[in-house]
Amino acid sequence: MNEKYVTVFKLPPDQHTPIHTDRIWDFVNPEIQTRCKVLKNKFSIISNKYKSWDEHKSEKGFKDVFISTFKNFQDIYNIQNFERVGLRYINKVKVEDKSSSWLKKYFIPIFNIEKYPIENLDENIIRLLVKKENDVQILVQSTIITEENENFYIIDFDAFFLNLNNEEIIEKADMLHEEILKEFHSLITEECRKKMRGEL
Fold it and tell me: What is the pLDDT of residue 19?
């Protein structure tokens, strides 16, 4: 499995000056496959290498990267309110057999797979925006894509809050992670869990 976390902050636009997003500051650490992108109204931390959310076996988790980067960002800009704070988790899994039986073996489909078997689908994009408890919203998307003659199942979770002040963000990030974790485990099978643990 190949996972990505993306933490996105949309900053409130300046009330006096129009926002221009054409200038981007892009900081990359190739060793840990992590980048930080800063625009005038958007701040993102992107990891293309799997990291646990919390520290694991003395290796810092993505939460540590997020907290450190966010604090440094705030030391410079001191933004008080954020329009959107989100945590995004994208899972990309190689499809070993493009069949409904293979998909059901590892995942709980978010569409009626009996009515629409994937063998018969030329295009498959599912997108759900769901309101959860404590003002969390989560966008769940799934699709099957083809890259270099190989098929991949994408399941994408984007959990977010709207309109947070800067003192709430670190605490709320844990809530976003918990919501994504619950949603992810509700959409995979025990067979998938065994494969993730290396038992198959």
Answer: 46
